[in-house]
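Minutes, methods subgroup
Present: GH (chair), OT, SY

1. OT presented the first of two proteins processed in the latest run. Sequence and structure tokens recorded below as shown on screen.
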Amino acid sequence: MRLLIVEDDRGIARAVQQGLEAEGFVTAVAFNGVDGLWMAQEESFDVIILDLMLPGLSGYEICRRLREEGSQVPILMLTAKDGEHDEADALDLGADDYLSKPFSYTVLLARIRALLRRAPVERGPRLSAGDLTLDPASRKCWRGAEEVKLSTREFALLELLVRRKGQVLSRSVIAENVWDAELDIDSNVVQVYIGYLRRKVDQPFGRHDIETVRGGGYRLADPHMAGVPGSTP
């Protein structure tokens, strides 16, 4: 299980991290709201432990943005404040639980385990292209039986390619669907992320499924289609 701790008090953050890692959890730590939001968006976590008052972005704002983006990862809010209005605000924004400082580590661990035990969000069907499989609900990817770790943005790009396998997608179409905005046509962001995906889902397995179509864009090879001209690995 992977947990993200977003806490600006380094002493508390390190103590919580050490305690959780002693219990067998894999943890990552951010000490401000900007880094915390970025990590939550780019990586996959099973629970986020989120301080309310953070430099850069508040825990309220991080929680709000994640829920608006569709993230369903359980969020446990930590705060030095103690009042029913703060708790209500956090829960209204989509937090799953709330714990006031100072808190007992035993209680924190029990709350985390309770969040992990809760029934998962109903899962949609998995997507596949040959031996490449995606689970959009958990944002997990496999090549054959081997799991491939992807960032949130990488997963979104690969999901688009898999859903439209065999179709040529221009950079602008990819930008609109994955970045929710048009990129500058001179931007190489799409190309960079295509490179990231190739290094993760193609090259280690001796595959060239993510194709560059000259003058067109990119395409994920459809195993049911053969002999389509105009592509290059």
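2. SY then presented the second protein from the same run.
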Amino acid sequence: MTNSFKDKVIFIGSALSWFAVIMQFILMMQNRVESLTETTIRFFSFFTIVTNSLVALYFSVLWYKKPNSLLTRFEQPGFLTATTLYIATVGAVYQLVLRGIWEPTGMQRIVDELLHSVIPVYVIVFWIAYENKKAVAWSLIPSWLLYPLGYLIFILFRGHLSGFYPYPFVNVTKLGLEKVLVNSGVLVLAFLVLAIVIVGIGKLFKAK
């Protein structure tokens, strides 16, 4: 695949991701019942939003191409794999756990599908096509877990202060701390297993 084709793929990924994130923010603001500040904090309390924002930033930096520390980091083998791990988890958790608990309509449904279905698949395909899988080391996996662990600590701490939990399976008020800690442990384990699977699949691609 030519560089010009790859550039188009990167641009489309950037445009789709930014559109979905920004439109979701607009929709959330239109339906807010809390203050502007509180609604904004809650918006960025969703793993879906933070991760899709990471995807949008990733594609944007690659498309811009100007040498900087972000571009250097994003082009290192493993960063795309980690990003794919995170967005794939967004898609998997939504399809398996969250899809059945609400039925969005209109623009909300379009944005919902972009965030949880289209963009995860898009990134996975991009990873298959462009990641330097041979150079992705198993030793990177522990560092990839810092992001979801940090996220869990943040939402549990803020939920304790504000009473707002972005997802039902981490709602301490309804489930209790012990159950939430178990759920959190399962999620971290799922991240670990999926990371091993993704790197392993990458090694199979290398062998072809």
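Chair's summary of item 2: The first helix runs from residue 3 to 30.
Next meeting: continue with the remaining queue.
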